[in-house]
Amino acid sequence: MSYLLRVQLPDRPGSLGSLALALGSVGADILSLDVVERGDGFAIDDIVVEVPSGALPDTLITAAESIHDVQVDSLRPYSGILDTHRELELIDQVANARDDRLQVLVDGAPRVLRVGWSTVIDMGPQGAYRVVGSQSAPSTQAASAPWMPLEKPTVLDGDGDWVPQLWKDMDTKLAAAPLGNTGKVLLLGRPGGPDFRPSEVARLGYLAGIIATVLG
Question: Which PROSITE patterns does UniProt cross-reference here (predicted)?
Fold first, then answer.
């Protein structure tokens, strides 16, 4: 079983090695590591680990936080494909798709940006509506989007009046970015968190901008 562990740890030599040893002590193998963000003296890392069958995931949290100044932001099952060029692969897939390019985008975005679901929404005469959604997108849709039109990538208030109650019940973190000047928006949902980091929002905006150019 694989898990995605998001940790905050001191940005100093030896911290990551100590964390790796602690995780190894409970039988966890590190499969990949992505630096999400670096700040003043700290780093936020996403670590994909594999644990033996039957092992309790809580042991990962206990092991990680046994290291001084290490905090676990979130832990959730991970079934994505491990690679180091996720954005480039998705851009290439969208560019080469003959039909339903937006569907290719929303199907690939959760894996690339490590979220639960993604949709593309637009504004029509009756207000906001879903253009396409990933297979994991909730069937319950937002009836309005008062934050549209959107000029730049941003984190959205998950407790806003426009947010469906089901999304709130699942503590869904939300972020969105405009797809160029089309008026359409790529909306991401991360049920149960963690919160979107500024670097993740910037990454979303970068990807959405390139995809908009590809779509023409």
Answer: ACT
CB 181 within 8 A of CB 116: no
pTM of the model: 0.77
Contact 114, 104 (CB under 8 A): no
Residue ranges matching CATH 3.30.70.260 in the chain: 2-77
The one-letter code for the residue type at 171 is: D
Q: Which CATH class is domain 86-215?
A: alpha beta
H helix runs in the chain, sequence order: 15-24, 58-64, 86-96, 101-113, 165-169, 198-215
CATH value of 2-77 in 3.10.129.10, 3.30.950.10, 3.40.120.10, 3.30.70.260: 3.30.70.260
pLDDT digits (tens, 9 = 90+) for 157-167: 999 999 999 99
Cα gap 199→38, rounded to integer Å = 9
Q: 3-state DSSP helix/strand/coil percent for the chain, to nearest 5?
A: 30, 30, 40
